[in-house]
Amino acid sequence: MEVTSAVQYVGIEHVERLNGRGLVLSSRPRKVKVPLPAHRPNYLSNGKGDRTSVILSSTSTTSTPASATEVENIKQRCLTWQWKGQYSINYFVSSEQLHANHPPLLLVHGFGASLPHWRRNIKTLAQNYTVYAIDLLGFGASDKPPGFQYTMETWSQLILDFLNEVIQKPTVLIGNSVGSLACVIAAADSSQNLVRGIVLLNCAGGMNNKAIVDDWRIKLLLPLLWLIDFLLKQKGIASAIFERVKQRENLRNVLSSVYGNKESVDDELVEIIRGPADAPGALDAFVSIVTGPPGPNPVVLMPKISMPVLLLWGDEDPFTPIDGPVGKYFSSLPSQKENVKLFLLEGVGHCPHDDRPDLVHEKLLPWLASLSNSQ
Description:
Blueprint: H1 5-9, E1 14-18, E2 22-26, E3 43-45, E4 51-53, H2 68-76, E5 79-83, E6 87-93, E7 105-108, H3 122-125, E8 131-134, H4 152-167, E9 171-176, H5 178-189, E10 195-201, H6 216-220, H7 222-232, H8 235-245, H9 248-258, H10 267-274, H11 282-291, H12 298-301, E11 309-314, H13 325-332, E12 340-345, H14 352-355, H15 357-373
Parallel strand pairs: 7-8, 7-9, 9-10, 10-11, 11-12
Antiparallel strand pairs: 1-2, 3-4, 5-6, 6-8
Helix pairs in contact: 4-5, 9-10
InterPro entries: AB_hydrolase_1 (IPR000073), AB_hydrolase_fold (IPR029058)
Protein name: AB hydrolase-1 domain-containing protein
Domain AB hydrolase-1: 103-357
């Protein structure tokens, strides 16, 4: 989930980002349909001028939703890792079995989510790979330290330390939203010894809406974003907004607005998002993330990354639309860098892995196989 979803859709007034071009104030949640330009880049480029169509039809068979027991099985098998000797980090590993010539995978969730958000992917990926999933500090069952100042750099360092101390093998990072951006930062700061490749699912441009990617229309609205920051720093106001955000019906409205496949927005998904929000420290984490610095710009980071990169982008994402500034930048990369491949997923929203896991697996599994064969 995108970090600003709570502020954009629920609260005294909510703010919606439309096509990455601006913000609109509204008094109640509503679905945002993101129109794509007539000549959107629905192709894959190999960097040599060859372009092959990769648009995926939304008419393909929808995956069967995971049962509630799948989430419980994941939770029951979770382990704890002490980060920096003081923070308990919740994580999952599919098995201790080693898959020869196949790198392990680390799944990194987005804002407001946690490792069960990968419930529709773990079983499929674990057939041929050792799969790890992690709750970032401040989310899920991981610690939420009082007064902690969250930054993108903190999460990227957590990922690198987890690779070094727990997995101890070159790993493919797979992230969604701000989890994707944390993977980009980690990959840019790491050597090939830790990160084997990265998969970005609708990568965020920053930890919050103060991320600027050369769009003057967003810059004009910075005063509004600073006002939101000021209001959220008033504990009473922040608490009232957060309590409203956590209401099941409001969460369902938010999720329905960012998922293309509405059947994937079930009670189980609502509880995956809602449950950790009741934990002590969740409010502080919410305020710190929304009001904190946006973090490093992916436009600066991506040129530093030479390892294989797979971009999977839902074309109905209202938060980081493919024709917005962030989406435009990432969609331009395959024609500039041979290590980057892009697939647009038609009829898919901000969380492709949970929205339409069948479409994600259709492109992810062959890419992982080719990565393993190239070792």
